Amino acid sequence: MEELIDVGLVVLKAALVMGAVLKLAALVTWVERKASALIQNRVGANRAAILGFDLAGIVNTLICDPVKALTKEDFVPKGVSQFMHSLAPFMGIFPVILSFAVIPFGPPLVIGDRIIPLQVAQLNIGVLYVLAMGSLAVYGTVLAGWVSNNKFSLLGSLRASAQMISYEITLGLSIIGVLALYQTLDFAEIVNQQSGTVLGFLPNWGIFMSPFNVIAFIVFFVSAMAETKRAPFDLPESESELVAGYFTEYSGMKFLLFWLGEFAEIVVASALVVVLFFGGWQLPWVDISEWGWQGSLLGTMVFGAKVSFFCVLQVVIRWSVPRFRYDQLLDLCWKKMLPIALVNLVLTVAFMLWMDG
Amino acid sequence: MTFAMMFFGLLTVVAALGVVFAAKPLNSALSLVATLFLVAVHFAMLGADFVAALQVLIYAGAIMVLVIFVIMLLGLDEASAVSKFKVPRYLAAVFCGVFLGLLVFAVSSEGIFPVGIMDSVAGGASESNPGSPREVGMVLLTEFIFPFQLAALLLLAAIVGAVLLAHEEKRPLGKGRGLSAMQQKNSSEEELREV
Questions:
Q1: Shortest Cα–Cα distance, B50 to chain A (Å)
Q2: Rounded to an integer, what distance in angstroms lies between the CA atom of residue B82 and that of residue B76?
Q3: A323 vs chain B: nearest CA distance in angstroms?
Q4: E-assigned strands of chain A?
């Protein structure tokens, strides 16, 4: 019986987290439309409303869009393996959702004698697990470009893979210094260490732990944005050159899956930033892990609020900055961010030694 | 041998057979990705989480992407892939058979491995985990620091070599910028894959 409850809890948590990520991703699509309408004065999204209620325009995005996509014809180009063509969007979205499994979204919930960690799987290699899943995300785009049998798709997927592999390096390098400060790869432990204050008034969040963590945060955030393949890093799908890049030959629900994967990536990137640099579910100056189930509820809400903030920030950046040229994109990674990340690592370790005396 | 082990073992074998029997190079490569991923699952079940993560990160995530890149860029089709073999096919079967026999012998006989491999399979994840990142890092940076640095040097040499091979002098158009230059580039990418 005990075992059955344990298994049931894990299944429940997995279903909840998956649902939450997909819902958040869908919400980001709505935010994206509204933000694009606001920032670039685009007509359409800023008129979406029901009976004058602006917020009700969310129905248009969350219900009408999927219905439209589901009823569209699923077009597969001639001479293309049907199986591979269908596999590509799934390969794109599945590592993104899987990587959310190790992210803690609240302080452990205590019911009776049972302690339920609010995290689907507590791995002692959580950070590596997320990076591994990120490295698998390349297959979706590569496969989509290859099976489409279209030169625009192939060019888009080649650009995407070069970009994703390059920025994976800075993504991993930028957080080594932070992980050296935490001395662990376990996300739950990382968040636990971010309680309390530093210097008396600042919350003891990752970004304030060392003066150099701001550099790490910027490099990590930029790399994560490049991994999501959105403007200013949207060269794989740049409309003005490649029609739609690697998903040119996709329509209907398969196209929507690529889209959803991209937005789920935004949510995962925000969650990683929050957990590594902004205290996860920790509320500044107050220790909510002692508050019982109310603490768990509040922690989850705090985590959701922080993640939402970074999602909106990414959307705002996406609509404010123009696209890079391809050589600028690779120069930024290899000639600027890579050396910065390496110097940051040395400085952080030096800071740690200096603090130890 | 738990049920999960049997299940994932079977899946691994099926995926590995897919690598050998797939007619198209790309399908074969994707099967190899699945195989490597499933091997990582086995590592994780044996309590070596760190090795499992590295397996996915490096083999499934980085090396196989490069292999698929090469397949995509060269545009190999099934006919050319088979006809390149000059050695009689039965030789391959003989060598594979000998290797399989050796493997079965090594796993089934006792005392060949310092730590009884079947014991660790039966026991699963133990309490004191020698496969945790901390332990592996400790050993790597103290006892095995020399081979570790040597491997790093080897990889550096490989990267420099690959860049040297792939590097192309800027030539004016019409002087080997066409098909021959493309073929040269392709062959250097093959070098990169072997590295």
A1: 6
A2: 11
A3: 25
A4: 106-111, 114-118, 197-198, 202-203
A169 touches chain B (CB under 8 A): no
**pLDDT of res. B186:** 57
For residues A91-122, one letter each, b for 16 or more C-beta atoms within 10 angstroms of the residue's C-beta and e for the rest, the string is bbbbbbbbbbbbbbbbbbbeeeeeebebbbee
Predicted pLDDT at B121: 46
Whether A127 and chain B come into contact, CB under 8 Å, resolves to no
Average pLDDT over residues A32-48: 77
Q: Which tokens hold the place of B45?
A: 């079940």
Q: What is the 3-state secondary structure (H, E, C) of B115-129?
A: CCHHHHHHHCCCCCC
Q: Do B56 and A125 touch (CB under 8 A)?
A: no
Contact A139/B at CB under 8 A:
yes
- Rounded CA gap, A298 and A282, in Å? 9
Indicate yes or no: CB of A128 within 8 angstroms of CB of B57: yes
Chain A environment of B27 (Cβ under 8 Å): 84
Q: How far is residue B124's CA from residue A309's CA, in Å, rounded to a whole number?
A: 42
Task: Tell me the per-residue pLDDT of A85-130, one tens digit each, with 9 for 90 and over.
Answer: 888 888 888 888 888 888 888 787 777 777 777 787 777 788 888 8
Per-residue confidence (pLDDT) for residue B154, from 0 to 100: 92
Nearest C-alpha neighbor of A122 from the set A185, A182, A193: A185
Q: A343 falls in which pLDDT band (50, 70, 90)? A: very high
* B-contacting residues in A 182-211 (Cβ below 8 Å): 185
Pair of tokens at residue B109: 């006989």
* Mean pLDDT computed over A13-17: 85
Q: A135–B57: do the CB atoms touch at under 8 Å?
A: yes
B43-71 pLDDT, tens digit per residue, is 888 777 888 888 888 888 888 888 887 77
Radius of gyration of chain B (CA): 21
